[in-house]
Write a structure and sequence with these properties.
The protein is α/β, with parallel strands linked by helices. Helices cover about 35% and strands about 20% of the residues.
């Protein structure tokens, strides 16, 4: 496929301390948070290239208002975590906006001027201004990465697909607590000739960006 880089944004999903680090929400659910670390370096390389090229960069964070008015009771009550959303933890209240755990990991921290979308749900379009931002900047294509592959990444790609955006998911720039879910999540996206989007690894993305940055060039996406 061809990408018009002038109409393409990099969207980095939920690389937050509460999901990535010990003591956060991910670990309270019984997950091995080290499984997510593999996505950090590939995201970092694409992020650096996007910044050098002047691309629009968007970061998302899942979390809630301190009074939990935007957190449905069914979401707060789900599962059997050792701490629930809003409970105090080692990085502040779990998944609460403004707390340390809600913020993005230092390795991928937003630069001044980069857009940060705070979202109350899994998808980056639900109850946010993301659609308005993309329209403002004339964006048609999204390079999507982050965590977790089968949950917030998949949900965002499906939302974007319904709104007419073309998505390329960066395979090694995504991760899951469950490696088999990561693999299946990518297969779901690219099945049937790209039913929700396309999948490429970071090396293919970087090659396309550096060979003909802001030109129209195939990004090595697989179907």
């Amino acid at each position: 496929m061809e990408l018009d880089w002038l109409a393409t944004a990099l969207v980095i999903i939920d690389m937050q301390r509460d999901f990535m680090e010990p003591g956060g929400f991910g670990e309270t659910l019984g997950n091995d948070v080290s499984q997510l670390a593999r996505a950090v370096k590939p995201i970092g390389t694409v992020l650096a290239a996007a910044r050098d090229a002047g691309m629009l960069v968007i970061h998302t964070r899942e979390g809630h208002l301190p009074d939990l008015s935007d957190a449905p009771p069914a979401k707060v009550a789900r599962g059997a975590p050792s701490r629930r959303i809003g409970d105090p933890g080692p990085m502040g209240r779990i998944l609460i906006r403004g707390e340390a755990g809600h913020d993005i990991i230092p390795e991928l921290y937003p630069m001044a001027g980069e857009i940060v979308i705070d979202k109350p749900g899994k998808g980056a379009f639900y109850a946010t201004g993301l659609g308005d931002v993309l329209e403002k900047y004339g964006i048609e294509n999204l390079l999507v990465c982050g965590v977790t592959t089968e949950v917030c990444v998949n949900t965002t790609v499906r939302e974007a697909n319904d709104r007419g955006y073309r998505c390329i998911v960066i395979a090694d720039g995504c991760a899951s607590y469950f490696p088999e879910f990561h693999e299946m999540g990518l297969k779901m996206i690219k099945a049937q000739g790209g039913i929700f989007g396309w999948v490429a690894d970071s090396a293919a993305i970087l090659e396309a960006m550096t060979t003909e940055t802001f030109g129209k060039r195939a990004a090595g996406a697989s179907r």
